[in-house]
Amino acid sequence: MEGRTPYEAVMQNTPDISSLLPYDFYDYVWYYDQTVDFPESKRKPGRWLGEAQSFGQALCHWVMSDTAAPIVRSSVQPIPHEDLNSAELQIQLKALDDKIKERFGQAPSEDSIHTYSLNNLGDDDDIPDHATLAYAPIDAESNMPDADDWEPEAYDNYISAEVRLPKDGQEILGTVTARKRDHEGNPVGRSNNNPILDTRIYQVTFPDGDSAEYSANVIAEWLYSQVDDKGCQYLMLKEIIDHK
What we know:
By secondary structure, this protein is an alpha+beta fold. It is 14% helix and 21% strand. Among the domains are: 90 residues, SH3 type barrels, CATH 2.30.30; 74 residues, SH3 type barrels, CATH 2.30.30.
């Protein structure tokens, strides 16, 4: 590998880890909660969990919030070491850790963690089930996904649909690419069999690379207006401007 990471060797690109340098896992950080009303401070302490690569714009982070739930935030900064000695901040950090402990339980101590040597293993019965290696099937598709791995877009009929939509005073053919998500990464809106009551919002990408947000009922209205009673679409030529 000549000192390169596997990613760099395959992609021929030097990975940019500058966004990770200010943080260590589970460090105390400041994040900003835009839903908080005055006079309460929008700046809150949290625990840094890692970079959120599939959410929002660049430099988004997973943060364990004061509700003991992981959230995604783009406005995150490390808490300086000198500020950690502040009595007021110590109270906030203790309340944060108590909330996390209340939800997830006490962290195990080093003495309670038993280690096993691969060179000195006894019978399988001597090793608890949680310490055995997980079975990895040869065929990756034979793994049934967990319920938590299900994505709302997986069975969404609007995703990848092509539809002509109003944009900048004209109709342009766009492709529905994804659901819009809120600041916590949850899809915006709820589906309904009645398109008028469907509150979902989608991202639509146009041929020039630009994208815009459209509600599900607007997409449905334009889809229905472009097909016949059987759901078939016909493209008509306006005129032939030249021929050979």
